[in-house]
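Hi R.,

As promised on Friday, here is the backbone we talked about, encoded as structure tokens. Could you run it through your design pipeline when you get a chance and send me back a sequence?
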């Protein structure tokens, strides 16, 4: 069994970093970047540093971007068995694999969960719970589609996502699969948080646009919620950031992702602060002194 998560990325490298720090080892992310992204350089550098594969596609329309990513899976990952929907602002509880185990084993074609948690990273910075976000259907995040469904849709010359769609993609794809193959999504009951959607003003559906759910949101404590979502800093990144030679190696390996060397430095120095708690260098000049020693 091999689960691939094709994930579109747009802006918010700070949010994307949090997503990367919560990738679970039971699925493989495959990122879809866009050259027109104003923060393409930072997002590309993050993907490279974490060692994941990516492709490049136009961001709009989003339905076309997602279909393009899915179309590459057979060549990029010939042995894949399922795809799992995720956003670059989603955090996954690693325990989700145990909830899904039976449906992976029994070859369920289309399944997921319906409850979701939100964490605001701006404004009031609330943590909220919403049950049955998509009524009696799966939410998009962590929704699993069996490869048999992907290939059956392809045989019918039908896309998973309507190409021109820019929003409402979860329901759009669900209805496409239902219309073409007659397959409904199976919703699994949950007892603990399995997905956190990080909310900012750049989301397709920011909390400010979700007023219809105001009377259904339930406040939850941040410390309780995030206890289910532990950061996992890859060892090779912490080791390289933590030593002068490793920092320098990362600097040169990522230099082609930025227009200026000072931007590469700023990116890595900020990352050192985010992951290790302090800045490696006080400023670019102090870094330059060290860099000259390694020439």
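Update: got your reply. Pasting your designed sequence below so it's all in one thread:
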């Amino acid at each position: 069994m091999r689960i691939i998560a094709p994930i579109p990325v747009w802006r918010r490298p700070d949010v994307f970093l949090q997503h990367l720090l919560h990738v679970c080892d039971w699925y493989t992310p495959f990122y879809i970047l866009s050259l027109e992204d104003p923060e393409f350089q930072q997002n590309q550098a993050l993907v490279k540093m974490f060692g994941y594969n990516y492709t490049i596609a136009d961001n709009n329309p989003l339905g076309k971007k997602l279909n393009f990513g899915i179309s590459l899976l057979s060549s990029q990952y010939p042995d894949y068995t399922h795809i799992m929907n995720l956003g670059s602002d989603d955090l996954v509880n690693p325990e989700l694999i145990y909830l899904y185990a039976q449906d992976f084993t029994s070859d369920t074609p289309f399944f997921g969960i319906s409850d979701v948690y939100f964490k605001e990273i701006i404004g009031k910075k609330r943590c909220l719970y919403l049950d049955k976000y998509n009524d009696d259907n799966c939410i998009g995040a962590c929704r699993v589609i069996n490869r048999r469904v992907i290939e059956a849709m392809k045989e019918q010359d039908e896309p998973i996502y309507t190409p021109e769609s820019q929003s409402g993609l979860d329901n759009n794809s669900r209805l496409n699969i239902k219309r073409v193959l007659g397959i409904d999504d199976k919703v699994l009951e949950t007892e603990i948080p399995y997905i956190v959607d990080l909310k900012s003003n750049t989301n397709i559906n920011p909390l400010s646009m979700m007023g219809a759910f105001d009377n259904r949101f339930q406040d939850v404590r941040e410390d309780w919620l995030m206890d289910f979502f532990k950061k996992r800093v890859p060892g090779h990144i912490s080791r390289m950031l933590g030593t002068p030679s490793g920092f320098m190696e990362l600097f040169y390996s990522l230099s082609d992702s930025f227009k200026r060397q000072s931007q590469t430095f700023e990116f890595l120095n900020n990352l050192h602060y985010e992951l290790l708690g302090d800045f490696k260098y006080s400023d670019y000049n102090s870094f330059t002194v060290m860099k000259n020693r390694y020439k």
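One thing I noticed while checking it: The domain at 3-226 is CATH 3.90.550.10 (Spore Coat Polysaccharide Biosynthesis Protein SpsA; Chain A).

Thanks again,
M.
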